[in-house]
Amino acid sequence: MNPQDYQFDPFWMPFTANRQFKKSPRMLVSARDMHFISDDGRKILDGTSGLWCSNAGHCRPKITEAIQRQAGELDYAPAFQMGHPGPFKVAERLKSIMPADLDYTFFTNSGSESVDTALKIALAYHRARGEGTRRWLIGRERGYHGANFGGISVGGMPANRKTFGTLLSNVDHLQHTHNLEQNSFSRGQPAWGAHLADELETRLVALHDASNIAAVIIEPMAGSTGVLVPPKGYLERLRALCDKHGILLIFDEVITGFGRLGAPFATSLFGVVPDMVCLAKGLTNGAVPMGAVVVRKHIYENMMTAAPENTIELFHGYTYSGHPLAAAAALASLDVFEQEGLYERARELAPYFENAVHSLRELPHVIDVRSIGMVAGIELEPLAGKPAARAFEAFLRCFDKDVLVRTTGDTIALSPPLIISKQQIDELVGKLGDVLREVGRA
User: Fold this and answer.
1) Which of 320, 339, 358 is the endpoint of a domain?
2) Which of 16, 86, 253, 338 is 20 to 30 A from 439 in CA distance terms?
3) What is the pLDDT of residues 338-379, one digit of tens each?
4) Whole domain around residue 26: which residue ranges?
5) Strands 276-279 and 291-296: what pairing?
């Protein structure tokens, strides 16, 4: 497809500098395994799994065929007061791989919807237990929980919040864990920072009282803000404090789920079980939109028993919850992850990836490299008065060299598909290194 075959102007692009893009478009027209194909025929090595989602690579035949087959059998079924086999099968599969008693799944269409759903479940759960005063929701600075009103409210990235004002009431935030002085160039979990979890008790519980706090929501590893890895002991302390004060703990695993950290989920890797887990992205390998909230047994059972029989227990849902095509994509994706051993592959490949990305630490303007599993953040010194400009220039130059990376602020994030080879890691990091040398001279 050539640019003259369509117009750029009518499409208002999300999270994009529209005017800049439309002056010099970067168009992808097909994909296979580790590569996108641009409209000028170039093979672009995918260093970002699309947008943190295509963990098994692109256009995998098993997933594609499952979607095609489902489209010919059942294109849609109503999600309210009716069912079809797909989401029941996906929920059963998730129960088999989630730790502890994270046994019950509510389906959504995106990570943003998963977050809003989890927040609503938290409020409804406390009300069902007779603790309806628990209305406060605690997020974290620099957190990203999607683009809906609830997610932006508990999120803590200023650029996502400044245009829209206060949004939800009864929201507060923990401080973030990022500290270059203490934790720069960490491999895996940094040693400093577990005490930052104590703020939940010393400031937020002290200020709002535990009887008014419904839930704490965090990303176990914050991705979109620039790959912030939790300090050793931080998640454990947060779990203990939530237990102490009767507060639900929600993990947003939209990015960390399905092998990204070298385990099926961050909760599996870190050994900390939250009360709810938000999922999306890798659940269908990015092939069809789908999200999910997986809840522990006590939440589901309380909601079921609190409502009168033959009444709706939770007045919430979406037209496309558990959509047939999404369910087919999810089942096929879970098969691929399992049959190809991609969780184990990510764990085995992580040390090689870690050594490769940390080789960039001496390059111009690199002020931090942090990594865990198959994800890394390379933080650059910002240009004076031009935050994010240096990283964005690096992103553009990488694309010109046939490599796709992602930037957030002045951090370059790498999260390649878990099928990447060592040779392709060398290519990805090598070309990024060349770009950082170029940008450093500019």
Assistant:
1) 339
2) 16
3) 999 999 999 999 999 999 999 999 999 999 999 999 999 999
4) 3-56+341-441
5) antiparallel
